[in-house]
Design brief:
With about 280 residues, the protein is mainly α. About 75% of the residues lie in helices and about 0% in strands. It has 14 helices and two strands. It has a two-stranded antiparallel ribbon. Helix 4 packs antiparallel against helix 11. The protein is rod-shaped and about 130 Å long.
């Protein structure tokens, strides 16, 4: 009876130890071994031997199945992400430091230049003409002063305004704009919107729309440039084999223990069948 129990225990231990060795041989030895100048079979372990192929397969799996364009786009366009981006932008502070101290001046000069070249003369001429005509309608002056005279007066006024803007006015406008921009220094975007009475919800909606449209149209190019599969492959190849083994056994601890116990059970079962038959 004791011999039978010992035989069953030995069979279970052999089955347990066999599966334990098999699992260890997945990673070990880490390097190729030689004996008397001849390569030792089953060295290095299966995973170190096929490391590059495994890394490439994992990279392909991640990039093609787990993190494809659609999955990344969906993750980036989640409401929580968009709200976080909106909040970050709203809290962004305008800063004009030593590196960009000339930026307000350049912006102001550019705006003033665009104003001077925006057809201001024609716009002022038309506005003054309409104003004079409206003032003189339904009055006796309208019978005495022809439209051409009003247009000539308006044109003269428009020329004077254009001349002023192109010379002294351009400098004054530029300085006023620069002063206005400098007042925004160290001011969060949300306070700037309040200062100019701009609807924050409208701005947030427009930011969300531009962001989602950009992600949708550019995600394929971004994913191709980032090449997640290549990154994963390089990270796996760069990992120390000991660290990779530790992570694998840590993550799959219960499953690997179950395989070892299964070996013990199968060994016990085979020993029992041998005794019975």
């Amino acid at each position: 009876m004791i011999q039978h129990i010992f035989a069953l225990a030995l069979s279970a231990v052999i089955g347990c130890f066999t599966n334990y060795i098999a699992l260890k041989m997945l990673f070990r030895p880490y390097e190729k071994k030689q004996l008397f100048g001849l390569p030792v079979p089953f060295t290095p372990g299966i995973i170190p031997m096929r490391r590059r192929d495994i890394a490439k397969a994992i990279g392909r799996l991640v990039s093609e199945d787990l993190m494809d364009d659609a999955a990344v786009e969906a993750a980036l366009c989640e409401k929580q992400v968009i709200d976080s981006i909106n909040t970050g932008l709203m809290q962004y502070t305008m800063q004009f430091d030593k590196e960009n101290h000339a930026l307000p001046s350049r912006i102001a000069d550019g705006i003033a230049d665009r104003i001077s070249k925006s057809g201001l003369e024609q716009l002022v001429t038309q506005e003054v003409f309409q104003m004079l005509k409206a003032r003189m309608d339904n009055s006796i002056a309208a019978l005495l002063v022809k439209d051409q005279i009003l247009m000539d007066i308006a044109a003269t006024f428009g020329e004077k305004v254009q001349s002023y803007v192109e010379n002294e006015g351009r400098i004054a406008i530029s300085k006023k704009i620069e002063q206005e921009i400098l007042e925004l220094n160290h001011m969060p975007i949300v306070d700037i919107l309040d200062k100019y009475e701009v609807d924050q919800m409208m701005v947030r909606t427009e930011i969300a729309r531009c962001y989602t449209n950009t992600i949708h149209t550019q995600i394929a190019g971004v994913m191709e440039a980032v090449n997640i599969g290549k990154i994963v492959e390089e990270k796996v190849n760069a990992m120390e084999m000991q660290e990779l083994e530790r992570i694998t056994f840590k993550v799959m601890r219960h499953e690997l223990h179950a395989i070892i116990y299964l070996g013990a059970f199968i060994g016990f079962l085979l020993g029992l069948l041998h005794l019975l038959f």
